[in-house]
Each structure stands twice: as structure tokens, then as C-alpha cells.
Amino acid sequence: MTEGIVAGKAWYDVAPSAARLTGSLRDIGYDFSTAVADIVDNSVAAGATRVEILIEHDGADSRVFIADDGRGMSAPAVLEAMRLGTRRTYDRGELGRYGLGLKTASLSQCRFLTVVSRSSASVVRTCARSLDLDLIEDWDQWVVVDPSPADQMVSRARQWLAEGTGTVVLWRSLDRVLPEKRPEGGWARRRLESLATRAAEHLGIVFHRFLDGVPGRPQLVITVNGQKVRSWDPFAQDEPATVELPPQRFEIEAPGAGGHVRLRRFVLPSRDRFTSPAEFERMSGPMNWNRQQGLYVYRADRLVQWGGWSGIRGIDEHTKLARAALEFDTDLDAAFNINVAKMRVALPAQLRTLLEPPVNELCVLADDAYRKTSRSGSRPLPSNLSEPPESRAATHAAATAGLALRMAAMQAGQWEAWEAIEALLRQQSPEVVELLGLDAD
């Protein structure tokens, strides 16, 4: 402890106990998949086009490599990255936030973290630094060390960077991943295999826009144990029968800043209107249709929270086809109160009020689509798949027009009048009702 006197007042520099602090930071709320995703955030921020994740079972020596081909870091930058609460600043649109992710995400899963990086494309020079929780607890200081030159895993990481710039994050002593007893057993091996599968699924969800390609950013490829991660677009935009409602934009004030939030709303097809039963099942998502309905919150194109309506309304079987994207940039982080693990946000009160009408409108239309399917019964495949593509496109356009008419009636406050018009059309022009997708029988 140091002390002194400034302006006649005594001051004391009381550094936190490193041993106690690291123990607390390990329980910040990550699981294996979200911890890996937080490391991939750094790769995206470094301009990586490829991230390779290798999860190897080797008993107590099991390990995880997360390697990218981004810009890499110099020796001082690697050391700064190991600091709790790094002093670097984050530009608008960067996925980093608090300067804690590399450390908190890694140490939530392991006791020994090593970072190896290369920042020069012309000079094959790498820098490696390690955090060892056993050493930190023994010394009660946040110490960063050079790994041993004889460390074979660090040598493998350096080989990864032989062709160009990039960074390799290495997790070892996986005490939060493997059982303390019998880490070499079959159960431990199967657990790592299961974690690899779940991590790939999670990465395909949260980074789906980067995997599909985001304007202004390099397209990203992620592999887990050599298998390419497949993106999962929650809005099934490749499905011809998916309907997107007109987007909306809201202005939000944040402490010291302001910004815009964009809302995009989708009514997904019912089972009988998907191109295949397999694709319908895939789009049900990891939580299945009912719990996958709701708001999908994106921060700088990275999905941070999904499922449910954030208190605006409840989950309902009849609205399970409704999903909406809520998009904001990093300048609104304070307004959304994003957490350290970048997994949870809180909707600003002013935004919640603004969202209620468009969300309820979306759910009314999704409810209508669901009930119409229930009344007509399910078919294994859409009946018009045998038609020429241009005919199917025309049918879809007409159904979209019918949905747009319903939405316009709601926005104009003329829903009762619209119901009367629908009833009259069913009597006088049932073929038009069918064409517009308004048939209820």
C-alpha cells in the first residue's frame, strides 16, 4: 500500500487482492459457448476473416485453441490486453466494451491462459504471454509471465502464425470444463465433444450476420474442430414465404450520447409453407418455436440476446411465428445497459413504450397466420411447389399484399372496417380472398 498527501488531504492506494478478485471474476456468468464467443469478438474486432477453434481431449492436459488471422498485436499490446480493464479505447462499432472479455471469458473456463500474437506480415516475430491463476493466488498479484521456451503447446500456436498475422488464445487447466476426478475418462471426452457441438451452434447464431457477410466488414469463416460453422438466420429470409413488415426507426437518448434503434419484423412461414420439413425443424432453433419467438437484439450486428418479448408481452403458442430484430450500435451501450459478458441487455423505458404498438401489430399478424394454418390443416409440403418459380413468386407476392392490407388497416385504426371488407369479399369474391391469403376456412 502506498500513501501520500495531496491538497492537504491524505490518500491511500489500496490495490485489490488479486487472488480474491480473480476468484470473483471467474463467476461473472459465462458458460463454455459464451466464453468462446467473447474471444471471437476480439477476432472480429481485429479484422479476422477466419477463426479456427480446436478443442482437444488429453485428460488433465486437455486444451482449447482459438486462432484467428486478424491484425495481431505487438508485444506491448499483448501485455496491455492481459490487463484487467485495459486502457485502450474502443471505436464505434467495435464489439469490445469493458476491456475485460479476454480475461474474464478465458478464466471462467480455465486456470492457465496464454496469448500468442503476430502483428507484422513481413517479419516472422511472435509474442507470447500467460496468466497462471495458481501463480496469481500464490503471489496475490496480477502477474503476467513469459511461457517456457520448451512449452510444446505454445510452439504449436506459433506455428499457426507462420504464414501471417493473427492471434492464438490457448486455454489449459480446464478446471471449469472437465471433472476433477477422471478427466481422462470417456465421460470427459464425450463432454468436450458435446461442448464443441454446442459452441458451434451458438457461434452460428450470434455471428450469423458476419458468417453471411456484413457490408463494410470482411466475411467471416469459423470452424470448430475442422467443421465449418453454419449460420442460423432467425428470420428465415431465404424462405419464399417469410413476410417482412416495413422497418421502423426510433431515436433514443443515452447519457452523454444519443442514437438510433432499428426494428425489423418478420412473420415466418408455418410448417406447410416451408420449403422442407427439415428446414422448418432447423429454424425452430435451440429453444424451439415457442421460446424462440420475440425480440432478437443486435449490437453492432452481433446478436446478444434473443427469445421472449422483454416484458412487452408474454410468449404465446399462437404468436410463435413472430420474430423481430432490434438493432443498435455501440454508442447506445449505456442506454441498453449491456453486461460484461455481452449476453444481456435492458431495454430503455422510452424504447419499450415505442415498441409496444409495432410488436403487438406483428403478433396480431402472426396469430392470424397461425390460426389460418390450424384451421386449414398441415400439409407436408407447399402445394404450389410443382408450379413454375414465377408462378410461386406471384402467389407469394399476392399473399404479401394481403398481409400488407391488413397491416395498413391496423395502422389506420380501421380494423373493424377491414373485417367487414373481408367478410364481404368472402361472399362476393372468394377467389380474391384465396389469392390474397385471407381465406379462413
Q: Could you walk me through the main structural features you see in this protein, from its secondary elements to its overall organization?
A:
The protein is α+β, with helices and mostly antiparallel strands. Helix content is 37%, strand content 20%. The protein folds into 2 domains: 18-228, Heat Shock Protein 90 (2-Layer Sandwich); 243-359, no CATH class. It has helices spanning 18-25, 32-45, 75-81, 101-107, 133-139, 152-160, 186-206, 208-212, 277-282, 288-292, 333-336, 349-376, 389-411, 415-428, 430-435, and strands at residues 2-6, 9-13, 50-56, 63-68, 112-118, 127-132, 166-172, 221-224, 227-228, 243-244, 248-254, 257-267, 294-299, 302-306, 322-328. The strands form 3 sheets. A 7-stranded mixed β-sheet has the order 6-5-7-4-3-8-9, sandwiched between helices. Strands 10, 11, 12, 13, 14 and 15 form a 6-stranded mixed β-sheet that branches. Strand 13 (294-299) and strand 14 form a beta hairpin. The longest helix is centred in the C-terminal third of the chain and has 28 residues, at 349-376. The protein is elongated. The chain starts with a strand and ends in a 6-residue tail after the last helix. Mean pLDDT is 86; it is low at 378-387.
